[in-house]
Design a protein that fits this description.
Blueprint (H helix, E strand, L loop, with lengths): L2 E5 L2 E4 L4 E8 L7 E7 L6 E7 L5 E3 L7 E6 L4 E6 L8 E8 L2 H6 L5 E2 L3 E6 L1
Length: 124
């Protein structure tokens, strides 16, 4: 089993920043795809960012491009989402996700491992 635990969510004013962390345990992640999703009330879950654990390529949703950065700490088995210039529209529960198949992270289907989520609230 793989366990993912998010942290770092909270309340921040528009224009501010937050850094989300996702601590992973249970398996080696050298061949895993990692990503962040978010879901706002009444909205469908959407992909925010993703990358391979041991790769350099990244993906960002257009809505967050230029503001969010996904990164990782190999030694700590942790993936991060640095969120800058936050907007009220970014308010959502953010979930960390992982799968051995990048395709699962791309299409958002069949992802094997999820964190419980951390709430990000951006006030205007």
């Amino acid at each position: 089993q793989v366990q993912l635990v998010e942290s770092g969510g909270g309340l921040v004013q528009a224009g501010g920043s937050l850094r989300l962390s996702c601590a992973a345990s249970g398996r080696t992640f050298s061949s895993y795809a990692m990503g962040w999703f978010r879901q706002a009330p009444g909205k469908e879950r959407e992909s925010v960012a993703r990358m391979l654990w041991s790769g350099d390529s990244t993906y960002y949703a257009d809505s967050v491009k230029g503001r969010f950065t996904i990164s990782r700490d190999y030694a700590k088995n942790t993936v991060f989402l640095q969120m800058n210039s936050l907007k009220p529209e970014d308010t959502a529960v953010y979930y960390c996700a992982a799968d051995r198949n990048l395709g699962a992270l791309i299409n958002g289907r069949g992802i094997n491992y999820w964190g419980k989520g951390t709430l990000v609230t951006v006030s205007s």
